[in-house]
Design a protein that fits this description.
The chain is α/β, with parallel strands linked by helices. The protein has a single domain, classed as Spore Coat Polysaccharide Biosynthesis Protein SpsA, Chain A. The chain has nine helices and twelve strands. The strands form two sheets. Strands 1, 2, 3, 4, 5, 6, 7, 9, 11 and 12 form a ten-stranded mixed sheet that branches. The protein has a two-stranded antiparallel sheet with strand order 8-10. Helix 2 links the parallel strand 2 and strand 3. Helix 1 crosses helix 4 and helix 6 packs across helix 7.
């Protein structure tokens, strides 16, 4: 098996069919032997009916795990990760759409850079705008800045060349099977976020690297459910704050990155 895709679905009626079909098309156009695992996280918007229809049409390439309630991002993804058989594993949000050139280029990049255990392409909005998807590890100050002025941060120029970065958001990751085996599964003590930061830190700790690959792009029609309008607070914001506190305690940092970098050998 060349590639296994893991996709979460939660009230994703607007996106899930486009996502699944983009994967099927990408496999076919690239001549890849691939599989798709969708974990349906208790949607109530009609997503289940769409997925059942897709299963009947597409067949065994599409496997769906139906859960009665939303179990978050880590527990549900791990359910699928345990079943994947591909030499590469593609983590994809339901509102992200793969394309064959990007998938093939990321696989080629992985083969050329065996230490790149996690590869993230450039993400763009449907209208072509750049989307902030890689960054330095969060600190208390940077999270406050991001919460208040995300739109301003997104105006920064993205990295111009492929290479190592601290972390990438989990909307689109290509992971090598070897890196997953060395790192382990996602930390299920984090319900929703920042499971992506935690896993990237652990990738570095396991002796692999996180690489940004801006030579290809993937559309991410971001739902941003954890970011309320204005400066309001919702349940996802609260869960994210709790997850962030857990991250800082787990990896023994919060205000400064020097100690974390030394432990990871990030600039060694």
């Amino acid at each position: 098996m060349d590639v296994s895709a893991v996709v979460l679905s939660f009230n994703s009626k607007r996106y899930i069919e486009t996502c699944v079909r983009s994967l099927v098309k990408s496999y076919a156009e690239s001549g890849l032997n691939g599989e798709i695992y969708v974990v349906e996280n208790g949607s109530v918007d009609g997503s289940v009916d769409i997925l059942k229809a897709l299963q009947a049409e597409i067949g065994q390439i599409l496997q769906v795990i139906y859960l009665p309630e939303n179990t978050g991002t880590t527990y549900s993804r791990n359910m699928a990760l345990r079943q994947t058989k591909g030499e590469a594993v593609l983590i994809l949000d339901s509102d992200a759409y793969m394309n064959a050139p990007a998938l093939q280029a990321m696989l080629d990049y992985r083969n050329a850079h065996p230490k790149a255990g996690l590869i993230a392409p450039k993400l763009i909005y449907p209208d072509g705008r750049f989307q902030l998807s890689v960054d330095v590890f969060p600190t208390v100050a940077r999270k406050l800045q991001r919460f208040i002025s995300l739109r301003e941060l997104e105006k920064r120029e993205p990295p111009a060349a492929a290479g190592p970065v601290d972390y990438a958001i989990s909307a689109c990751w290509l992971l090598s099977k070897n890196a997953i085996e060395a790192t382990g599964l996602l930390d299920e003590r984090i319900f929703y976020s920042p499971e992506d930061v935690d896993y990237c830190i652990r990738i570095w700790k396991a002796g692999y690297q996180v690489h940004y690959f801006p030579e290809v792009s993937v559309v991410h029609d971001a739902q941003e459910i954890s970011r309320p309008k204005g400066l309001g607070i919702n349940k996802f914001t609260i869960r994210h704050a709790k997850g962030l506190l857990y991250l800082f305690l787990k990896h023994r940092y919060g205000f400064f990155l020097g100690g974390l970098y030394r432990r990871l050998g990030r600039f060694a």
